[in-house]
Amino acid sequence: MTIISPNELVRAVAALREGQLVAFPTETVYGLGADAANETAVRRIFAAKGRPADHPLIVHLPDVAALNDWARNIPPLAWQLAARFWPGPLTMILPKALHVPDVVTGGQQSIGLRIPDHPVAGALLRAFNGGIAAPSANRFGRISPTLAEHVQAELGDAVALIIDGGPCRVGLESSIVDLTGEQPVLLRPGHVSASQIAEVLGMPMAQSQRSTTRAPGMLASHYAPLTTTRIVDSDALLPAIEALLRQELRVAVLARQAAAIEDPRVFWQPAAHDPERYAHDLYAYLRQLDALQYDRILVEAVPESDAWLAVYDRLRRAAYTAPGHD
Ligand code: TXA
Ligand code: MG
User: Fold this and answer.
1) Which pLDDT band, with edges at 50, 70 and 90, does 206 fall under?
2) Which residue of 45, 85, 91 sits with most ligand 1 atoms within 8 Å of its CB, as the best mutation to test the pocket?
3) 251 within 8 A of 294, measured Cβ to Cβ
4) Which ligand is nearest to the Cα of residue 223, counting in written order?
5) 86-117 pLDDT per residue, tens
6) Gap between the Cα atoms of 144 and 45, Å rounded
7) Is the CB of residue 169 less than 8 Å from the CB of residue 283?
8) How far apart are CA 70 and CA 21, in angstroms?
9) Pocket of ligand 1 (CB under 6 A)
10) 49, 170, 246, 285: which has the fewest C-beta neighbours closer than 10 Å?
11) Which ligand is nearest to the CA of 213?
């Protein structure tokens, strides 16, 4: 387990207090952190990411008691979910406390909150003793970072400090559940599954209608490599590769099935059969395949079951192209 040195912790807290950005590891992905109570600092997050101002941030908390500082009219269900899943990869959307700066919530009356389950994030939050606003530490629309090196490559110039906590355990962003309406809604699937949340709630959860772009993770194209990426059914994978080779194109493949072709124009990245392992590796693999700068990335389709839902969702966004474009 990576433990942050007292020295680095002091530097990180000082940077946050000065309104600077600090990238830090969580169990899901690396976050780009700023003092959530400092509007100038929070604006720096949007500038560094190139993120539109109306896309709200998640505020990370040191402990459950802090929930009262950032949210109001907190329903009993929220306390139940907190007791069951925090610290952990679940974000709750609640009515925001009145003092929360608009810049944090993209002008909305609600706020996203979570307590991350990572020793470094926990130590940082407790030492800072406040809320840290932190989106994933990547440029807007791109792949979330699961290694400190990813943050360095993409945002190194914009941050005061990157705390290296090694690879993120989960590898995909937190599950997001909206508790501001009559019925809880799953806005973003993640490691905490829909059925696990529904079990605590004692009621089924509505799936998001995807009619709103309140959550950037809900834009159709997100978490995307620059290389054109396609999802292909298992049976269709080999024919699809052969068709691309006939067009003289080079193909990077991410597949659970074993490499089925030997060709210098094909790079084959074997993927895990287990959904948790697959999720853990996914973003690092997508970055590696993207860095090859081949003509296409082909990803073997994954099941649509509850266990694979978060992976399925991220792959769909990585492979999204606007209608009419290839
Ligand atoms: O695992 C995670 O959640 C990571 C780590 C760093 O904690 N953070 C993360 O942040 O993924 P970000 O900004 O990349 O994604 C946060 C999502 C966005 O889709 C955002 O719009 C949504 O949470 N969100 C935040 N506040 C919201 C609100 N009030 N209403 C609806 N969606 C909200
Ligand atoms: Mg993000």
Assistant:
1) confident
2) 91
3) yes
4) 2
5) 999 999 999 999 999 999 999 999 999 999 99
6) 15
7) no
8) 20
9) 26, 28-29, 31, 55-58, 89, 91, 93, 105, 108, 110-112, 116, 134-136, 173-174, 176, 187, 214-217
10) 246
11) 1
* Contact status, residue 49 vs residue 139, Cβ threshold 8 Å: yes
Ligand at shortest distance from the CA of 174: 1
Q: What is the DSSP letter of 136?
A: B
Could you tell which of 49, 57, 212 is best to mutate to test the pocket of ligand 1, judged by most ligand atoms within 8 Å of the CB?
57
The helix/strand/coil state of 296 is strand
Q: Is the peptide bond before 87 cis (omega within 30 degrees of 0)?
A: yes
For strand 185-188 and strand 175-178, is the pairing parallel, antiparallel, or unpaired? Answer: antiparallel
Q: Quick one: 140 exposed, middle or buried, by C-beta within 10 A (0-12, 13-18, 19+)?
A: middle
Non-local (6+) Cβ contacts of 286 within 8 A are: 143, 225, 229, 254, 297, 318
What sign does the CA torsion over 9, 14, 17, 19 have? negative
- Nearest alpha carbon, ligand 1 atom 21: 215
List the beta strands (DSSP E) in the chain.
22-24, 31-35, 58-60, 90-95, 110-114, 132-133, 161-162, 175-178, 185-188, 206-207, 229-232, 251-255, 266-270, 296-300
Backbone torsions φ then ψ of 34, nearest 5 degrees: -150, 155
Question: Buried (b) or exposed (e) across 12-49, using 16+ Cβ within 10 A?
Answer: bbebbeebbbbbbbbbbbbbbbbbbbbeebbebbbebb
Cross-sheet strand order for the sheet of 296-300: 229-232, 296-300, 251-255, 266-270
Report pLDDT digits (tens) over 272-325.
Answer: 999 999 999 999 999 999 999 999 999 999 999 999 999 999 999 999 876 555
Q: Which atom of ligand 1 is nearest to the CA of 116?
A: 7
